[in-house]
Amino acid sequence: MKGLLIKDYINIKSYLKLYLIMILIFSAITLLNKELSMVYGINIFITLMIVTTSFSFDTTSKWNEFILTTPIAKKDIVKGKYYLTLLVALVSLLLAFIIALIMNLTPFIVPTVHIMEIMLTLGIIFCITLIMMGVFFQLFSNLDQKKLD
To answer: What is the value of pTM for the model shown?
Structure first.
């Protein structure tokens, strides 16, 4: 399992700078609009992008065909993708929370929002992200399975 996560990290590592730049751009837009909703939306967007990139790398390199020849169970491969999604969603949730807190500390830029409201909103966004990823996994797995058959 750890090896699957390390593989995904190595594949995604080259894009992390791009995602960080996107977070900074969306944070700047949030400051200009004086609205925290952009910070919440970027949470879902970044998680979807990173996991989609992981799936894309696997498909492009034909890793899916290779891994089936190893003794790793299909169940563990799927668990690895779910763990990747959970890890990325938690990290993006933490980043969104930090950005929202920083912006909340500057009431002259963004109107002050209660911390509990930020936490509740991010919790809901986290749940929506996980539901979207569950649906995405099913669609992607079905399409990938049809290619293999």
So the answer is: 0.78
